[in-house]
Amino acid sequence: GIQVEQSPPDLILQEGANSTLRCNFSDSVNNLQWFHQNPWGQLINLFYIPSGTKQNGRLSATTVATERYSLLYISSSQTTDSGVYFCAVVSWGAQKLVFGQGTRLTINP
Amino acid sequence: DSGVTQTPKHLITATGQRVTLRCSPRSGDLSVYWYQQSLDQGLQFLIQYYNGEERAKGNILERFSAQQFPDLHSELNLSSLELGDSALYFCASSVETSTDTQYFGPGTRLTVL
Question: How far is A18 from chain B (nearest CA, A)?
């Protein structure tokens, strides 16, 4: 099945810093979503982005489908951005989201 | 708030018992998905229902079963529980297929003692 790799596994930053999270996938996809899992365990949708670029406030994402990777950018980090960020994909012909192992982001005040 | 609701939020039970987790999808969504998040396995797909019919199956144990009712809510039944079944169980919904955006509920945290 499709493999999803996220990097880095852990990231510790000071408030106000910018960060880039990467998601590589091993096959063509027709769904790619980024999620933020907050400290209470909730999975919050950030982006649906099987291709192209989207922005939402301080967050933006880019997926280059032909090269099989996606990037999540967080600018001017806040402590509330802390948590685990997951990338998940659906490969062509499949029915399920396959999740990466996540990037744990810690923003210190 | 994603619009997907799950009950209960927390469940503590003993080995060998049976529990039922409930999910109501977003208004208008026909597909419901169940996922399990455990420390050692990460987030894994269990099963998908579309408009009452099973559409896809993942790594779901034979002790687990699910169904989707005519009002589109879904239940996940876990029986003969083992310590290793302790996990966070998520329900998600989408308009129709897995290529649509999937929205996740708040999860049910199951602890098996």
Answer: 26
